[in-house]
């Protein structure tokens, strides 16, 4: 199967009825095409369409290819000041826009984000743009927290191998959330069971919890905390009406600097090395040039992989996800 669903490109040709785009336009590609007829589609929640054709999701091939065909309303023209490289990052940013909308974050609120991978980092950036005054990044890897702090987090917390309740208590104290009774909103962007368990103890009475991370199908969940605190719990899946547009606006207006997440660009023939390099855990995003682009050598990074670091990162990810 062809991989790829985070992409941007240049229009080569358009169908007869298309008036919104022309050859040469640079666009961010929304990679999932709903049926437009079912009840979720008609009620404006097309991301929940059961007949979605989503790139790189079986049986549909992905966007890591020379040419791609898409409905014109799922191709978003990029403003002059937004590069094609930034355009490729609109997809994960739209995921973060949707998660953060589900969190209903208000100006001045505190938001804890579990997981400082690309999605968690972008949720932090969007929460800040929505006016959150405290953005607390949580991870099990210190280097990820260091980056989060340099990106948008106001506070960081390195999750310890202690009970979820103890991690929650320590975090609430460290982030000065005691008076608030916890965080106004907690977002899980890790999918890891211990993180999800701690989240329900971190959120304040009447606060909001959003499940953005995708991990195991079934986990043990402190449901009594949800009940006793009257927590609003929401899921978040991909993105829907207006999310891509808002993501592009956030980049164009300079409110979210997605360029900071890019470690380098590799030519198409080095795509596999790029995936390995990301698995090693030392970089955030590597862009892969399309096969028709004139990128001959990797720009900005050495793609050689340190096998020891690769194994260590796989072990850490597995530990985060299962214990
Ligand atoms: N809801 C959606 O539509 C949607 C879309 C895209 C991605 N996702 C999911 O969002 C999550 C984040 O995506 P990503 O690309 O940033 O992934 P990622 O793997 O790069 O980031 C996950 C981060 O969580 C950290 N982590 C692991 N265990 C932890 C724990 N116990 N406590 C705190 N942090 C912990 C990891 O160290 C890592 O930095 C993934 O689960 C992914 O599948 C969901
Ligand atoms: O960003 C979109 C996500 O990566 C996809 O929904 C995928 O992870 C699940 O099908």
TrEMBL record:
Its cofactor is Zn(2+). Residues 298-323 are annotated as: Disordered. Residues 1-288 form the Enoyl reductase (ER) domain. PANTHER family: SORBITOL DEHYDROGENASE. Pathway: Carbohydrate degradation; L-arabinose degradation via L-arabinitol; D-xylulose 5-phosphate from L-arabinose (fungal route): step 4/5; Carbohydrate degradation; L-arabinose degradation via L-arabinitol; D-xylulose 5-phosphate from L-arabinose (fungal route): step 2/5. The lineage of its organism: Eukaryota, Fungi, Dikarya, Ascomycota, Pezizomycotina. The keyword Oxidoreductase applies. It holds the Pfam family ADH_zinc_N. Xylitol dehydrogenase which catalyzes the conversion of xylitol to D-xylulose. Xylose is a major component of hemicelluloses such as xylan. Most fungi utilize D-xylose via three enzymatic reactions, xylose reductase (XR), xylitol dehydrogenase (XDH), and xylulokinase, to form xylulose 5-phosphate, which enters pentose phosphate pathway. This is L-arabinitol 4-dehydrogenase. Its EC number is 1.1.1.12, 1.1.1.9. Belongs to the zinc-containing alcohol dehydrogenase family. It catalyses: L-arabinitol + NAD(+) = L-xylulose + NADH + H(+). Keywords: Arabinose catabolism, Carbohydrate metabolism, Metal-binding, NAD, Oxidoreductase, Zinc. One of its GO terms (molecular function) is L-iditol 2-dehydrogenase (NAD+) activity. It comes from the Eukaryota. InterPro entries: ADH-like_C (IPR013149), ADH-like_N (IPR013154), ADH_Zn_CS (IPR002328), ER (IPR020843), GroES-like_sf (IPR011032), NAD(P)-bd_dom_sf (IPR036291), SDH-like (IPR045306). One of its GO terms (biological process) is arabinose catabolic process. Residues 305-315 have a biased composition (Basic and acidic residues). It comes from Rhypophila decipiens.
């Amino acid at each position: 199967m062809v991989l790829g669903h985070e992409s941007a490109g240049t229009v080569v040709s358009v169908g007869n009825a298309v008036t919104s785009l022309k050859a040469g336009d640079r666009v961010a590609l929304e990679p999932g095409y709903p049926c437009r007829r079912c009840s979720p589609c008609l009620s404006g929640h097309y991301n929940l369409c059961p007949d979605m054709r989503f790139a790189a999701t079986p049986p549909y091939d992905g966007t890591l290819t020379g040419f791609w065909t898409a409905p014109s309303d799922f191709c978003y023209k990029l403003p002059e000041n937004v590069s094609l490289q930034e355009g490729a990052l609109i997809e994960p940013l739209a995921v973060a826009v949707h998660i953060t909308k589900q969190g209903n974050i208000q100006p001045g609120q505190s938001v804890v984000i579990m997981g400082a991978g690309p999605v968690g980092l972008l949720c932090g950036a969007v929460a800040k743009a929505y006016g959150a005054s405290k953005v607390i990044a949580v991870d099990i890897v210190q280097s990820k927290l260091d980056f989060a702090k340099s990106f948008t987090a106001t506070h960081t917390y390195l999750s310890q191998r202690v009970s979820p309740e103890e991690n929650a208590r320590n975090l609430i104290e460290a982030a000065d959330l005691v008076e608030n009774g916890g965080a106004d909103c907690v977002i899980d962007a890790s999918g890891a069971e211990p993180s999800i368990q701690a989240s329900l103890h971190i959120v304040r009475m009447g606060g909001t919890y959003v499940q953005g991370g995708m991990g195991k199908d079934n986990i043990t969940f402190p449901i009594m905390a949800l009940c006793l605190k009257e927590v609003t719990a929401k899921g978040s899946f991909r993105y829907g009406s207006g999310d891509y547009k808002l993501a592009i606006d956030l980049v164009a207006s300079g409110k979210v600097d997605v360029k900071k997440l890019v470690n380098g660009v590799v030519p198409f023939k080095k795509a596999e090395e790029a995936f390995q390099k990301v698995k090693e855990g030392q970089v955030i995003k590597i862009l892969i040039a399309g096969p028709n682009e004139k990128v001959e050598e990797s720009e900005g990074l050495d793609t050689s992989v340190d096998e020891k670091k690769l194994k260590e990162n796989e072990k850490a990810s597995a530990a985060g996800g299962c214990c």
